[in-house]
């Protein structure tokens, strides 16, 4: 029996007796579909079908694993196993893959996190198109006709929910809109694993059908088909093809061009935040694509001194750096400038995807560890003058301390650090996430993390 005849029959539709309760019972029994999007006639786009959905799915299948892998690598870079690093705490079973993050090559985190963020943004139009193409499936009624279909629907809901959660929280974090009622880092990690499990299950269910659908139409021929010759795909078991299609207002070629153009636009308006020079100004979709004033300190700032409660008086002549270890030491900025100074070009790369390379001058952390009498193989716990916000402290591993390019930086590009860039002193470590390059340092506590 067709949906239309069922609606007109004695079991429901316009002739159902007994009011709303009887109608709801009919819906629950599956005798009648609820109105609106639960009825096939509601979805009328002649473009929807297995082939178009499979094209979008293939692009996502190529891109999302890269986004996921680079995201997991990023979490390893935070080294949450280090004692005292309660910013990204130990994750138990989910931390099985963590490894000692290297300091070489210095650009590795800049690359992996840049790819994670920029590719994720680039895939947003494709993801939205994919969700649009399968939205009738989300309203299929009854929800399941068999245990296998119930499992498939559950994996679909988990996949869609996971995708929406991961992309939404990631984009809000990129924009520095910390509106979450939870900690972004563990939530994003847990969400990533749930999403990947759902994605694997979905691929297992759908890949054979997707391959069949992709082979059903010639891609090049579809790109040559204009609006006049655009017609619906044949009826399908997935129930994506509309039962009452409307006349097309755009061809599949036009839709693919629109989605592809949207992805290129997202890429072009965000990639500049990972590049130095004038291209940074093209990152209109990123909060770090602007200028920060003339001079050597013109590069990205995540948080200003005023926003985290660092007062200029605290960073003046009375500021002292405390070295905690077997031989505690207190040093003024003049004392630090009198020590052997070293200069290295090193990048800063942040979880939001922005990165920049600058030339830093300062005292090696290894030399400061020696002054404090720290044993070989000691890490360091860094404390800041910062009062508000996250990341007022960080743990650095013994490998990071021992690297000769790891500095307590006093200058950048030949000039003193500005207050917003961490004056009087900040950490700069090769290949470390930006939040571990602590600004406004007040104490270096050298300790064994074994």
From TrEMBL:
UniProt-listed InterPro entries: OxRdtase_Mopterin-bd_dom, OxRdtase_Mopterin-bd_sf
Keywords carried by this UniProt record: Membrane, Transmembrane, Transmembrane helix
Transmembrane segments: 51-78, 115-135, 156-178, 190-207
Coiled-coil features, chain-numbered ranges: none
Residues covered by the Oxidoreductase molybdopterin-binding domain: 318-447
Protein name in the entry: Molybdopterin-dependent oxidoreductase
Taxonomic path: Bacteria, Bacillati, Actinomycetota, Actinomycetes, Streptosporangiales
């Amino acid at each position: 029996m067709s949906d239309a005849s069922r609606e007109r029959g004695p079991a429901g539709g316009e002739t159902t007796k007994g009011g709303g309760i009887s109608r709801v019972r009919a819906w629950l029994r599956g005798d009648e579909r609820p109105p609106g999007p639960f009825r096939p006639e509601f979805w009328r786009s002649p473009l929807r079908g297995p082939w178009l959905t499979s094209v979008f799915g293939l692009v996502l299948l190529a891109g999302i694993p890269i986004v996921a892998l680079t995201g997991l690598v990023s979490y390893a870079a935070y080294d949450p196993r280090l004692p005292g690093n309660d910013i990204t705490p130990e994750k138990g079973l989910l931390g099985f893959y963590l490894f000692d993050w290297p300091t070489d090559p210095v650009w590795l985190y800049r690359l992996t996190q840049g790819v994670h963020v920029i590719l994720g943004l680039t895939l947003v139009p494709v993801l939205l198109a994919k969700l649009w193409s399968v939205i009738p499936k989300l309203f299929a009624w009854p929800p399941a006709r068999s245990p296998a279909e119930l499992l498939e629907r559950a994996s679909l809901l988990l996949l869609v929910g996971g995708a929406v959660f991961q992309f939404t929280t990631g984009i809000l974090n990129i924009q520095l809109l910390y509106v979450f009622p939870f900690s972004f880092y563990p939530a994003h990690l847990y969400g990533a694993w749930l999403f990947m499990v759902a994605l694997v299950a979905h691929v297992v269910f759908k890949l054979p059908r997707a391959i069949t659908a992709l082979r059903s139409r010639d891609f090049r021929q579809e790109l040559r088909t204009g609006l006049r010759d655009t017609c619906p795909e044949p009826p399908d078991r997935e129930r994506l093809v509309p039962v009452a299609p409307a006349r097309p207002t755009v061809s599949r070629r036009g839709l693919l061009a629109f989605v592809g153009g949207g992805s290129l636009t997202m890429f072009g308006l965000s990639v500049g935040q990972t590049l130095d020079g004038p291209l940074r100004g093209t990152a209109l979709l990123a909060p770090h694509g602007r200028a920060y004033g003339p001079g050597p300190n013109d590069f990205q700032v995540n948080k200003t001194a005023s926003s985290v409660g660092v007062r200029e008086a605290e960073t003046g002549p009375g500021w002292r750096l405390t070295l905690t270890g077997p031989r505690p030491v207190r040093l003024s900025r003049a004392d630090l400038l009198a020590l052997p100074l070293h200069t290295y070009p090193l990048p800063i790369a942040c979880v939001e995807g922005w990165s920049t390379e600058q030339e830093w001058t300062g005292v090696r952390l290894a030399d400061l560890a020696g002054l404090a009498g720290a044993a070989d193989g000691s890490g360091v716990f860094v404390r800041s003058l910062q009062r508000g916000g996250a990341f007022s402290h960080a743990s650095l591993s013994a490998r990071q301390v021992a690297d000769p390019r790891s500095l307590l930086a006093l200058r950048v590009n030949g000039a003193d650090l500005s207050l917003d860039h961490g004056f009087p002193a900040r950490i700069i470590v090769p290949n470390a996430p930006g939040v571990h390059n602590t600004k406004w340092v007040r104490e270096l506590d050298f300790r064994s993390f074994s």
